[in-house]
Write a structure and sequence with these properties.
heterodimer, A: 184 residues, alpha+beta, Glutaredoxin, 6 helices, globular, B: 635 residues, Jelly Rolls, five-stranded antiparallel sheet, four-stranded antiparallel sheet, 17 helices, 21 strands, 36% helix, elongated, disordered N terminus
Chain lengths: 184, 635
């Protein structure tokens, strides 16, 4: 299904922000990303102009294919307030990102998920507790320095642990990508 | 606030920056326009534009990060180890200015203060090319997976030899193509590696087989944001009718499927070359056998230059394990001249580096390559985790150790042969019994006219690779020119058994058969060439000649019907041969086909009104026809 982009998105968003910062749908209506029932919730922060997050579209499709049937809800979060609805729609379609699209123009979800870059993943329990946030895998060592094939699949492990009620793996390395603070 | 915190961490080590207000317009535009925007603009390789304040602000922290680490703008050589044109390095002061601008709020300032936005040319940077070659089929790059390397074969289909002063590569999908190399294939050898004609073939590097002495002379290289290189006026390179270009492309998946269909634009000059540079390769792939886990494996090569020469450009090449790459020359007195030093090699940003001023190397200088490889698990670019033993080879998981130099021997003569000979002798020192060294020495001696010595070296080459088609073909050519037609025929036939689509060998076989007056077999070979490449001008001409001579033999033996059909087929390639028309007419007349004969004699006289034989033949044929008509009417 294709959502319709509203013509006056920015005006509506500004009004909504003035009331209380919140996440909105692609069309600009306020949504609570924690409302739909799910065993585990995964948010992945992306930008339309970040080659690193683009590169992860196939991996996110793979993870969604693996975990959506097991009750995991995937959402792709666009946090650039200046981004247009039409651009987001085109971007999601071109790269075939899985899951629902959420906009976080005031970075409320960014803060709750402790996200710093795109792509960065956050895994929440059904009760809304932040279980994991960080890189999807270890493909990128730094910007421009990548492994041929990743050897650690941090997000996959984190979702698996969350589903099974196991403790989260200890090891953590900072995610690599484009800074969310650049689009505050 | 988060922003302040992040920057505080990155700025700690920086020294003083310029004083006063720092704004985008006044302080940042001069840096961004020169060093970022050439790639970061619509249609080019940069993944986002960096042209306006809003563009740059949206990536401000990222820019601080990548400039501090000197990942951007990409430039691998270390300063002070060679002065190169178009150096892309930011100064420390520029990097500090960017940091301070971001820390102080990334303000725009007064747009009137901005540097003028460079005038970027969309599309072909040197104007409309004289010839555009596009890959006939696009390559489908997957959304995911490791980097891919593909070779597109681009036939030039030239009618005559042309001199090329510049090429420009348009990658098709700029954001997926990391760099590209063009190789000149003068013997159409790369085509045989295609499974489906026109589809190209995989491989990070490739070997081009050549059977004429025309060594590589120019770097034909593309990287994002690069302005196409125009060769000096006296140094264009030659493209022959049979030349194919092979475009070797490095692609990186982008997250969505991409179709890559690159084009190459060529710019010709009417000025032939008067200076003859050559690419000299230091290498030691044979020494590449890197045990798993080894952190610093060194591969070296040392070549003594046999003449005074200038080094014009340098192109170091390794794959993913290469770490520290050094090239330098030691002069006779013992002093060292640096050619290049790359402290943190990254194959993604490999490039050709051209010297600001040619680097002079006097005869006897020793050029050295010292390449260091890191095959440990700590090297993130290592294609194998856990590490594996890695040897030399063309695939991304293999390694290479190449230091290419474009050199121009001093003096006015073309001294490439001397240089090539020294390189090949050096190669034999490294690899005793080496095929390509013996083959190239053989080809050199052939070019020099020393056929006996050429045969000796070609036999040594064939001892290393017994049925190597190019060596067999060259050996055949040597034998043919020595008058040993039967031996030559056998060599060409063997070459064709190894590679049935080897046009040059088939051509030579046809010539050898023709030499032996085996017209029928010779014609069959030329016909096959024309089936494969209908526009091959040489094959058309020679088939015409063979059919003509075959027809003459048949006519002399009194086999007129067959002679006529040979002549008629020959005319398809020699329509303006007046004596052929005349001889065809004579054969037809002998068969009593006078009306057809008259047509041929008339055709001959249209081409040459003074052709005496045709005039007399026409008169006789007309007389005969007249008598026949009279007899008919008399009845």
């Amino acid at each position: 299904m294709r959502a319709l982009c509203p013509l006056f998105f920015r005006t509506i968003a500004t009004v909504a922000l003035a009331a209380a910062p919140q996440t909105v749908s692609l069309e600009g209506t306020p949504v609570d990303p924690f409302a739909p029932p799910a065993k585990v919730r995964v948010f992945v922060f992306v930008r339309t102009d970040c080659p690193v997050s683009n590169r992860y579209a196939p991996e996110l499709r793979r993870l969604s294919g693996e975990f959506a049937p097991r009750g995991v809800a995937f959402s792709i979060v666009y946090a650039d307030p200046a981004e247009t609805c039409a651009n987001i729609q085109r971007h999601t379609g071109e790269y075939e990102f899985p899951g629902t699209v959420i906009r976080d123009p005031s970075h409320v979800l960014v803060r709750r998920a402790k996200a710093t870059v795109t792509p960065e993943a956050a895994v929440f329990s059904a009760a809304g507790e932040l279980l994991y946030h960080g890189r999807i895998d270890n493909r990128f060592v730094e910007l421009g320095k990548a492994m041929r094939t990743p050897t650690r699949h941090d997000l996959e492990d984190a979702i698996g642990a969350a589903l099974d009620g196991r403790p989260q793996p200890e090891a953590w390395a900072p995610p690599i990508g484009c800074y969310l603070a650049d689009v505050e | 606030m988060k922003r302040a915190f992040l920057i505080a961490a990155t700025i700690a080590a920086a020294g003083p920056v310029e004083s006063g207000d720092i704004t985008f317009s006044k302080n940042i535009t001069p840096i961004v326009y020169r060093s970022c925007a050439p790639c970061h603009r619509p249609g080019e390789a940069g993944p986002f534009p960096l042209l306006t304040w809003a563009d740059v602000k949206k990536h401000a922290l990222q820019i601080v990060d990548v400039t501090r680490r000197r990942y951007m703008p990409p430039w691998l050589p270390e300063s002070g180890y060679g002065d190169f044109q178009g150096t892309q390095k930011l100064t420390d002061a520029q990097i500090r200015t960017i940091e301070r601008w971001v820390r102080e709020g990334a303000r725009e300032g007064d747009p009137a203060d901005a540097a003028p936005l460079p005038k970027f040319t969309p599309g072909w940077q040197l104007g409309t090319p004289d010839l555009i070659l596009q890959a006939s089929r696009p390559y489908s790059l997957s959304a995911d997976g490791p980097d891919e390397y593909w070779n597109f074969v681009l036939p030039m289909n030239l009618r005559d030899t042309r001199w090329v002063k510049a090429i420009e590569i348009r990658p098709g999908t700029a954001r997926a193509v990391h760099h590209a190399n063009v190789l000149i294939d003068r013997s159409r050898s790369a085509r045989s590696q295609e499974v489906i004609p026109g589809s190209g073939f995989p491989g990070m590097d490739l070997n081009i087989e050549a059977d004429t002495f025309d060594p590589d002379s120019h770097f034909l290289f593309w990287k994002p944001g690069g302005i196409p290189w125009e060769e000096p006026e006296d140094m264009p390179w030659k493209a022959d009718p049979s030349t194919d270009l092979v475009l070797n492309v490095h692609m990186q998946p982008t997250g969505k499927p991409e179709l890559i269909q690159p084009s190459v634009g060529l710019y010709f000059t009417s000025q032939p070359a008067t200076k003859f540079p050559m690419l000299v390769q230091l290498e030691h792939d044979g020494a590449l056998d890197i045990p798993a886990g080894v952190r610093d494996f060194v591969v070296s090569d040392d070549f003594t230059v046999p003449m005074d020469m200038d080094v014009l450009a340098v192109y170091p090449h390794a794959h993913y394990l290469g770490h520290l790459l050094e090239g330098y020359a030691t002069l006779r007195g013992g002093s060292r001249k640096w050619l290049i030093r790359i402290p943190d090699w990254d194959v993604n940003w490999q490039a050709v580096y051209r010297y600001e001023e040619p680097v002079f190397l006097p005869k006897g200088s020793v050029v050295s390559m010292r390449f260091h490889y890191d095959n440990s698990d700590e090297n993130p670019r290592n294609p194998n985790h856990p590490p594996k033993r890695v040897v030399g080879g063309n695939q991304a998981t293999d390694e290479m150790a190449h230091l290419w130099l474009q050199v121009l021997p001093r003096g006015t003569a073309d001294r490439r042969r001397e240089l090539q000979e020294a390189i090949m002798r050096h190669r034999l020192d490294k690899y005793p019994g080496d095929f390509s060294a013996y083959f190239n020495l053989g080809a050199l001696e052939m070019a020099r006219g020393d056929k006996e010595q050429a045969l000796v070296n070609l036999r040594s080459a064939l001892a290393a690779r017994p049925e190597q088609p190019v060596a067999l073909n060259t050996m055949g050519a040597a034998l043919l020119s020595m008058g040993r037609t039967d031996d030559a025929t056998e060599a060409f036939e063997r070459a064709l058994r190894s590679n049935p689509r080897y046009t040059n060998a088939r051509y030579n076989l046809a010539n050898a058969l023709a030499e032996n007056r085996q017209w029928e077999r010779a014609a069959a070979q030329f016909r096959q060439i024309l089936d494969e490449t209908p526009d091959d001008a040489g094959a058309r001409q020679h088939l015409g000649e063979v059919l003509r001579l075959w027809g003459d033999d048949l006519a002399a033996a009194g086999r007129m019907e067959e002679a006529v059909s040979c002549y008629r087929e020959s005319l398809r390639f020699r329509a303006d041969d007046e004596t052929l028309h005349n001889d065809l007419g004579a054969a037809l007349a002998k068969l009593g086909r006078f009306r057809e004969a008259v047509q041929e004699f008339e055709a001959a006289l249209r081409l040459d009104p003074l052709l005496d034989a045709a005039r007399r033949n026409l008169q006789s044929a007309r007389d005969v026809l007249h008598r026949i008509d009279e007899q008919k009417s008399g009845r």
